From TrEMBL:
<dbReference type="InterPro" id="IPR012337">
    <property type="entry name" value="RNaseH-like_sf"/>
</dbReference>
<dbReference type="GO" id="GO:0015074">
    <property type="term" value="P:DNA integration"/>
</dbReference>
<dbReference type="Pfam" id="PF13333">
    <property type="entry name" value="rve_2"/>
</dbReference>
<dbReference type="InterPro" id="IPR001584">
    <property type="entry name" value="Integrase_cat-core"/>
</dbReference>
<feature type="domain" description="Integrase catalytic">
    <location>
        <begin position="1"/>
        <end position="69"/>
    </location>
</feature>
<dbReference type="InterPro" id="IPR050900">
    <property type="entry name" value="Transposase_IS3/IS150/IS904"/>
</dbReference>
<protein>
    <recommendedName>
        <fullName>Integrase catalytic domain-containing protein</fullName>
    </recommendedName>
</protein>
Length: 73
């Protein structure tokens, strides 16, 4: 459990939700909560397997991991 008011304790989650908001939430309008839930689920399915990262030389995180550990599929 992180300390109150200290986002550094939960940096990975903070980064993910910040990215979710900037790439999905702020660029769309949702009619109702169900549409928002579907959009969040779609983004989560997209985030690791397909989202290209410049940090990983244009590979998705999953592709980068597979390339880093040959023989692990």
């Amino acid at each position: 459990m992180s300390r109150k008011g200290n986002c550094l304790d939960n940096a990975c989650a903070e980064f993910f939700f910040g990215t979710l908001k900037s790439e999905s939430f702020y660029t769309s309008k949702f009619k109702d909560i169900d549409e928002l839930k579907i959009a969040i689920e779609d983004y989560i399915r997209y985030y690791n397997p397909r989202r290209i990262s410049l940090r990983f030389n244009g590979l998705s995180p999953v592709e980068y991991r597979l390339k880093s550990y040959p023989g692990r599929n």
